Amino acid sequence: MSLPLLIEQALNGLQLGIMLFLMAAGLTLIFGVMGVINLAHGSLYMVGAFACAAVAAASGSFWLGLAASLAAAAVAGALVETTVIRRLYARDHLDQVLATFALILIFSEGTRWLFGSFPLYLDVPPLLQGAVALPGGVQYPAYRLAVIGLGIAVAIGLYLLIARTRLGMRIRAGENDREMIAALGVDIRSLNTIVFALGAALAGLAGATVGALQSVQVGMGEPVLILAFVVIVIGGIGSVRGAFYGALLIGFVDTAGRFFLPRIAGLFLPPADAGLLGSGLASMLIYAVMAVILALRPKGLFASHA
Amino acid sequence: MPERHAIPVRSLLASLAIVLFPLAYALLANLSGETFHVTLATRIAILGLAATGLNLALGLGGLVSLGHAAFFGIGGYVAGIVASHAMGGEPLPFGLPASAQMASVWALAMLAAGLFALVVGAISLRTSGVAFIMITLAFAQLVFYLAIAWPGYGGEDGMALILRNPFFGLATMRPMTFFLIAFGALLAGLAAFAIIKASRFGAALQAARQNPDRLAALGVRPDRIQLVAFVISGAITALAGALYADLNRFVSPSMLSWHMSGELIVLVVLGGVGRLAGPLAGATLYVLLEHFLGGVTERWQFFLGLALLLVVLMGRGGLMSLLAPKGAGHG
Amino acid sequence: MAEPILRVAGLRKSYGGLTVTDDVSLDLRPGEIHALIGPNGAGKSTLIGQICGSVMPDAGSVSFDGRDITRWNTAERARAGLGRTFQISTILPEFTALAHTMLAVQARQGTSFRFFRPTALDRSLRDPAMQALARVGLDGRAEIPAASLSHGERRRLEVALVLALGSKALVMDEPMAGMGSEGSRELTALLSQLRHETPILMVEHDMDAVFALADRISVLVYGRIVATGTPDEIRSDRLVREAYLGEASA
Fold first, then answer.
1. Interface A:B, Cβ pairs < 8 A
2. Which of A228, B38, B76, C217 could be bridged to C234 by S-S, CB 3.0 to 4.6 A?
3. Distance from CA of B60 to the nearest CA of A (A)
4. With contacts defined as CB-CB under 8 Å, which chain B residues touch A87?
5. Which chains does chain A touch, 3 or more C-beta pairs < 8 A?
């Protein structure tokens, strides 16, 4: 096995991890600040992808599409928060699961209604087409590199936002003590809406960037949503730092599994079966990793004390 | 909860009506030769049974499992795998004889799902709340991907059962006969739920939902009680899964998908959480809506979503609470 | 003097740099009510948590009925006979008063894994459960859901639970909290009788109740026990006066 191949796989793992972080960060922020489990987070990812694909197709510009994805997902998020989620804060988790499951049905069927059942395709922008030569003789797609860079920039921005700004201070206060923050005179309702819209925008951004790598279709958010759940369970629910490390871990484990397991299975089985079995086992691998981590640390790796 | 009041008449009548509805529907459909509607009633009975299993964990124990599709699907795959081995005359793994008798299929399905529930429960019950929801979901995904990956049994495409499994010489391919088998299983499941609810275990389980610290302070470990309930719950849902495979003569990973888990929760809540006939009421409503609304618009799930949202945001208690509001002290 | 049933020795607990339990030793003897008092923030709740198993100490030991229970969980301690009541009434809102004591009786019998016989018809549960209710004067309210009971009735229900459980000793976290004067008097009378059957370690802020009931009092300040003695001794203790009256500490 060659070094360039390994570097390429490592970059793929990094890219997957970064995308998962964008999803998981929003989910875990929303849970941390509002105490709400949002199954419809994958729908916001889908909204971002569709908005990007539609606007890019209409305007011919990927970049306009990317901006549209952020805006559409943020608006959808704010709308969902003010109409539905707001009524769920005082409810139990069962109600939250049901209501957000209902939102998935509405978003999915609504999108099918608007765009039909066929997948849309989103092209990589001309600026980022082709491959970049990296040290070590690696040829790596420029777009994927840009996605990694964008994700890291967003992660740093998010860190600065939470650690250094007034909004971040309020978010941290909201995570620790919701009554305290209300007593301090912070408008908790608008804080909730802003956090939800921020989380939605991150999901939409992830959906749009991944949309150019895969196809844009209804239901595309759900596998990502479930992976993001695994990420935040591993990282410790409510912890953005935990989500970051959890996302990288899952990104690398999943990529490594998809790369190595079919090859290992190939030692015992005919190639067609080995490919199927290997990729299936790879899909299971992260859940097995999660089970082991939870068996050792039930609250995740970076459990918040709240 | 231990009840010492005379059983409220209205609640009893409502439950009876809900339970007898699929039977009456199937009998009428059978008389008028509408076998499709017999199958619809069978679907109601089987989904009602699956959701009754979930109701034990969710309604009595307060365990919001978003992974019950795993048990439903394990039941289905056991039925499918046994049938395919029996058809080919091959023995099962571990040298088990490949008897496709439904009774032995059921036992195997419940055993397999019960064992899986024991593992999932032992890990996920160390957490609670949102983490429990996510972990049960994740374990169900594990099984989902296993079903896709395993080459022998249809993978992503699923596998067909050429014939329904036999049941003591009855003609199980006849819709009405199979309905009666499924209906019998439903009654058994409802009876199990009612008996457990009224028992000492049921009292401890309901206490664990309302206040686990209180139960622990009485010297009973709530997680042990909940784990046993989770295992029984998974086994009942697996029985329904085995029947569902025989009904459709087809199993596929979609039985294991997380949408299935979500739908099972929807059935329980639409009908009434923790109520004996609640899940069956929910299943009845769901299957009829799916059939009749689905006939009107292709986008019926959109309206289902809206309706569900309204049910959650506006009121609580589901269909059963409309038919028979809960009296004080009545579970 | 009789051998203590509950003995706490050298208990320590800190969170980060903050020591909330600092080398605490105390005991509870048969037939007595031992009150634990102290200003807010003295670490009373954390201490109760360590005695009852919801908080694990960093060092020290808790022994009960001759056994070291330091590492036992809440349920194991309860089964061994260490009953507790909570600061905020901890009840099962959907259960009737009788369903509560029946649950306690089945817990005492260790029969929570029975799946078949309906509890409603089961005299082996119902009779002792009714007796426990009668002892706290709640037998007339047996069929009322706990959510509809008054605050004072809930307090008494908690005592009935401990009676039905047959606990050998009882830890009570502020039993008088939120009670009117009438309710306090009733509960004081009840606990005063109860001590001969079940010794009680109680945390309490109501000084009238403490001085009326307690055989011994321990004073906890900043996680340390600064004094233990009879009510008269405590009344005249200098450290206690400082802790409560805010006089400059020595």
1. 130
2. C217
3. 13
4. 313
5. B
Q: Would you give the DSSP letter of residue B153?
A: G
**How does residue C41 score in pLDDT terms, banded at 50, 70 and 90?**
confident
- What is the C-alpha to C-alpha distance for residues C244 and C38, in angstroms, rounded to an integer? 8
- Report pLDDT for B328: 36
Burial of B327 (0-12, 13-18, 19+ CB in 10 A): exposed
- In the complex, which subunits touch C with 3 or more CB pairs below 8 angstroms? B
Could you report the per-residue pLDDT of C139-155, keeping only the tens digit for each? 999 999 998 998 888 88
Q: Which residues fall within 8 angstroms of residue A91, CB to CB, at 6 or more apart?
A: none
Q: How far is B64 from chain A (nearest CA, A)?
A: 6
**What's the rounded mean pLDDT across residues C52-61?**
92
Contact B216/C74, CB-based, under 8 Å?
yes
Q: With beta carbons less than 8 A apart as the criterion, state whether B317 and B8 touch.
A: no
Q: Which of B4, B220, B331 sits opposite C107 (nearest CB)?
A: B220
User: What integer pLDDT is reported at residue B27 of this predicted model?
Assistant: 95
pLDDT at B202 over 90: yes
Chain B nearest-CA residue for A96 = B312
Mean pLDDT of C103-126: 90
Substitution target from B54, B118, B128, B135 for chain A, most A beta carbons within 10 A: B135
Chain B partners within 8 Å of A27 (Cβ):
none
Q: Is the pTM for the entire model greater than 0.80? A: yes
Query: Which of the 8 DSSP states describes residue B255?
Result: G
End-to-end CA separation in angstroms for chain A: 46
Question: How far is it, in rounded angstroms, from Cα B164 to Cα B195?
Answer: 31
Best of B195, B196, B214 to disrupt the C interface (most C CBs within 10 Å) is B214
- Residue B156: CB atoms within 10 A of its CB come to 12
Instruction: For A10-116+140-296, give the CATH class.
Output: mainly alpha
Which comes out higher in pLDDT, residue B117 or A265?
A: B117
Neighbours of A184 (CB within 10 A): 11
pLDDT tens-digit map of B88-103 = 777 666 666 666 788 8
Domain boundaries, chain A: 10-116+140-296
The pLDDT value given to residue A166? 81
Considering only alpha carbons, which residue of chain B is nearest residue A94? Answer: B64
Right CATH for C6-92+168-245 from 3.10.20.30, 3.40.50.300, 1.10.3730.10, 3.40.190.10: 3.40.50.300
Share of chain B above pLDDT 70, in %: 92
**Regions of chain A where pLDDT drops below 50:** 305-306
Cβ of A97 within 8 Å of Cβ of B299? The answer is no
Per-residue pLDDT, B294: 82
The per-residue pLDDT of chain C, averaged, comes to: 88
Amino acid at A108: S
CA distance B76 to B257: 13
Residue among B58, B145, B301 whose CB faces A284 most closely: B145
**Phi, psi dihedrals of residue A72, rounded to the nearest 5°:** -65, -45
- Residue C75 pLDDT more than 50? yes
Q: Scan for tokens 């999901």, then name that residue.
A: A203
C162: left (phi over 0), alpha (psi -120 to 50) or beta: alpha
CA-CA-CA-CA torsion sign (A100, A106, A108, A110): negative
Contacts of C135 (CB under 8 A, 6+ apart): C160, C163
Q: B-chain residues within 8 Å CB-CB of C74? A: 213, 216-217
Q: For the residues B190-205, what does the mean pLDDT come to? A: 96
Contact C95 B1 (CB under 8 A): yes
CA A55 to each of CA A48, A109, A129: distance values in angstroms, whole numbers, following the listed order: 11, 20, 19
**Residue B3: what pLDDT?**
44
Q: Which chain A residues are Cβ-neighbours of B262 within 8 angstroms? A: 39, 97, 101, 104
